[in-house]
Amino acid sequence: MCKYFWGSSKKYERICSLPRNIRIFALKFNNKIYLLVMTVKQIYELRQKGHIEEAYDAVRKLYAIDKGAYSSIAMFWVAVDVLRKRMREGRMDEAYKIILAIKRMLPNLPDKDGRMHSTFDSCQRHFENSQNACFYGAPEHIKLGRWGEYLAVNYLTDKGYVILERDWNSGHRDIDIVAQDGDVVVFVEVKTRSNSDFGGPLTAMTYAKRKNLCHAINHYVKYHHIDNPFRFDVVAIVGELGDKEVKIEHIEDFPIM
Questions:
Q1: Residue-wise burial string across 118-139, b where 16 or more C-beta atoms lie within 10 A, e elsewhere
Q2: In this model, does residue 16 exceed pLDDT 70?
Q3: What separation, in Å, do the N-terminal and C-terminal C-alpha atoms of the chain show?
Q4: How far, in whole angstroms, is CA 57 from its chain's centroid?
Q5: 3-state secondary structure of 51
Q6: Angle CA(45)–CA(50)–CA(52) in degrees, nearest 5?
Q7: Looking at the whole model, is its pTM more than 0.85?
Q8: What is each CA distance from 172 to 167, 195, 215, 255, in whole angstroms?
Q9: What average pLDDT does the structure give for the chain?
Q10: How many CB atoms lie within 10 A of CB 23?
């Protein structure tokens, strides 16, 4: 028999890192605890006390089983707290993943006064400014490459892809983007050029480059035990750093070898 019950987190301190005076909502089945969840009110209390990481961990557990209005709103505000914290810490890759997650949930949020949308827009602008600051002092080709990957991620997200990884690497081999397109895992190489004077971005897909990518993809598939079908795509971008209008070409199922 399955039942819900209330209890003190002190009893479950081995599997719950929350303060002992916080009461928890848990699921019990055959005398075993399978899930620990806090209420929205308790999550806000953690947030107000400055326990941002604990609140984030708790709200994700709650949101996984309850995507109602109150849980969704709590998920948004705690995620924004963590996003701001990650940007302050300079952990921009993690910050970008949170931005993508918020972007996916935003259309379904009950935001009648537009406050959540305006907060998210402000965070996005701050992130973009921080990204530009990260480019300062880097060689031009590095700046262009990072900028191109940023554009490619936005492009793929707008097409409905879910971004799983960015800049995944194994030794000297790396994969720019790992994404999900339906049930297909997509490995994406991003090639950016400021112009096509010496050939377009696809000219950089040399045999040696494709061979390294093949090894990296095989390693990723084995390491993550990927059973889904997968493919290799190339996103080719032509434009000057910071241009508002760029040429983006997405080649699906590019022949890697």
A1: ebbeebeeebeeebeeebeeee
A2: no
A3: 55
A4: 16
A5: coil
A6: 90
A7: no
A8: 12, 28, 11, 22
A9: 79
A10: 15
